[in-house]
Amino acid sequence: MAEPAISVLLAAPDAALQSRLAAAGLAVRVAVRAAAPEVAEGDPAAEFAPEAAAELAGTEPQVLLVQVGSAAALQALALRPDLPQRACDHALVVLCRPPAQADGAAADALLALGVQAVLPAPAAGGDATALPHALRQAVLRKRAERAARTAYATDLATGLPHQAQLLEHMTQLLALREREPAPMVLLVLRVEGFGAAAARLGSEAGNVLRRKVAVRLRAALRASDVVAAIAPDAFGVLLGRLEAPGDGERVAAKLLRSLMQPLTVAGQVCAVDAHVGLAQYPAHGKEARALLQRASAQAGSLATLGAAGLAGATERAGHGVAANDAAAGRDP
Question: Which residues partner with 94 through β-bridges?
């Protein structure tokens, strides 16, 4: 099996390490913020610079290599709020320079957060192949992990994440919100009309209509918002960042209005009815499953907005411009 092509992004410059990795055929880049007098050299607060995030965004999993030089720095790294996301997206490897140790409780905590490996920094004159080999293995593990996560997390009919993945994402975001408090909203939309389309136009028509509803919802939201297929007739929408109070209600009303636009399957117009429920963190709960249960229950109790022309409570709540307002497209 061919070894993977690897790009290593160093969170801070290290000429000797760069030379060692380049000699092993690895592409090495450095991304580090401008030095600030209040940030001590080797402090993990200086790692994960904005430039590093930009370099890594949207890429295949690669290695993000972070060096720490003390036990305190190793412990501080485990407390960084952005570490779990970096470790989820890429093969994050920590090198410990003396006197920091690559074992112990702090190293175990990093591994539990998704760090691929906590290794001792290579000694001068030591085995030149050991670290490059460890980095290649880390990338292989991360690629396999990402492939498995994608296969597990996707609703095959719509291409959207499914309920388990939505709950996992919410749990991660809620953990971050505990450290950096900010409101977030979960919407649940129950959509009726798939069965009628299948009965009128054939079984595949119901699946096609469901995919078109998924595309319509996705097109009406920001890239940072999450849309998930949580049931055959239900979608979840996670608004992780709100620009103003009441954005949840306004986005809910906007999504309902978007589903009133014509949807066609096999040249035939197919109407859908939609019910929406809303749960807001922290007002309605602090656990992902509790928020989902509340929004789902509310979606089952509100009036609909769709073919019947009835307005639910969120539609009446306001007609302002939502934080993520973009023109909802016609039938895709």
Answer: 66, 118
